[in-house]
Protein: IKBP1 protein
Organism: Erythrocercus mccallii
Amino acid sequence: MAPPAPPLSRIFAELDPSPVPEGRVVPPALPEREVHVSGSAELSARPDRARVSLRLGSRKEAAAAARSSVSRRLQYIAHTARLHGVPEENMTVTEDFSRVENTYQMEAEVCIIFSDFGKMQIVCNLLIEKLGTSVTISPPHFYHTPEAIDTLRRQVCVTAVGNTRRKAQEVCRLFGQALGKPLLIKEEETKEWGSHTDSHLSHSADSQTLQERIQNATAYASCRVFAVFEIKAKENRRHKLL
């Protein structure tokens, strides 16, 4: 026996495009109203860290005397740095003990990283005043942390986008239009230059001033973006009042 035929489906409604009368031309769809613009920005960032190296030593006939002489000065250096807000993890001490002829020689190097350059100068001046020629302080080496470079990259990109949007607004205003929402924002080119990382730090001449060293370690970045914005026609003022 053959299976029963499936019930007939019924169509409740069907929407067909209205037929176009012969001879009538259908106007083409209006193209999207857009404004295409490009913009750029260039920013700089001064170094946010400085590394200072201090060297000191002592040569005595007795080993304990050589160690004690250096140890007292190391304690004073660490105490002075802590008083001016330098955390313990930003201080590194390297010691070397050796025997030279009939004497014992103790040498030490202290590396201090500063984030406040004003306090760095105060600490260095105090150490020179109190320890004199018994300590040698190298000129500061300025550099950027990775976080500072990331901040510079974000800021220059955001600034370039802002400049591009303002340019698009001025173009629309010139033709009596209003700027709409962004349809596309594309970062086309970025450039970075300058001494902005610790590994690429250049050893400046001792004759340079502190401000010259900071300027030489300044990082620069530029960014160019391309953007597409929607154009909104301004509403008729009379229509708004109604």
